[in-house]
Amino acid sequence: MAKPLIAANWKMHKTVDEAVRFAQTVKITGDNILDKDIVIAPPFTALYPMAGVLKNSRIHLSAQNLHWAEKGAYTGEVSAQMLVDAGCEYAIIGHSERRAFFGETDSTINKKIVRAIANGLNPVVCIGETLEDRDQERTFEVLSHQITKGLNNLASDDIRCCIIAYEPVWAIGTGKTATAQQAEEVHRFIRQLLADTAGETVGNGVRIIYGGSVTPDNISGLMAQPNINGALVGGASLEIESFAKIMQY
Ligand code: PGA
Question: What is the CATH number of the domain that holds 114?
């Protein structure tokens, strides 16, 4: 059974000072959690200062995005190598907000995953259907397309480094969580698809985490499902009290 992974996605929130103070507090709780991997994805500006505070702690850092090129004339972008240099071990890739507001496609996401893995970062690959997709009963079709294109041409060993985050778009920041049963049904489908693509061992080993209005109140029900291996938490990760409860579910 894969070790559960609880990740905080801070999106465009927190100054350096706020992030460092959060890190100083969260590491006290996090250092006692041995049975889960805890990851925080702050904005780029807070990565390096947080890495200083979290050095030798059990809390890992993630970026929220990266560029697919190794380096070059890409004004405003940040490379995988820079992220590793700043203390990152993970990178969120293909979040639905990036797909919706910044034109990310399955093909650019694929290139970012390849670059992340080449630099030793663990990609947290986000997929999810919209409400319209779900109403039209296209959920499995959409997810299967996102996975097949996003992981296109990756070797099985590379797929094994990925964490898949199932985040139904209709559940993000809306207070509407998928029920534990709805999420489990989708996670089971994703696992089977990974097993068909990359073999049974990879299918069983890849962590598939859930995101979308996760709170201290619903985390235990979600984590009780056999195919849910963790959570990607937005709003409820911004306050130390609620994130600490989720980490300790
Ligand atoms: P939420 O965000 O927990 O605020 O719904 C989750 C995410 O977007 O990763």
Answer: 3.20.20.70
Q: How many domains does the chain have?
A: 1
The boundaries of the domain holding residue 39 are 5-54+64-241
Residue 134 lies in a domain: yes
| Residue 167 annotated among the catalytic residues of the structure | yes
The pTM of this model reads 0.97
Among residues 95, 97, 104, 187, the one annotated as catalytic is 95
Q: Which residues, in sequence order, are CB contacts of 6 under 8 Å at separation 6+?
A: 36, 37, 38, 39, 230, 231, 233, 246, 247
60 catalytic? Reply is no
Q: From ligand 1's centre to the CA of 7, what distance in Å?
A: 10
Residue at 247 is within a domain: no
Q: How far is CA 218 from CA 42, 175, 181, 187, 233, in A?
A: 23, 11, 12, 17, 12
Catalytically annotated residue among 97, 104, 129, 167: 167
pLDDT tens string, the chain, 249 residues long: the values are 689 999 999 999 999 999 999 999 999 999 999 999 999 999 999 999 999 999 999 999 999 999 999 999 999 999 999 999 999 999 999 999 999 999 999 999 999 999 999 999 999 999 999 999 999 999 999 999 999 999 999 999 999 999 999 999 999 988 888 899 999 999 999 999 999 999 999 999 999 999 999 999 999 999 999 999 999 999 999 999 999 999 999
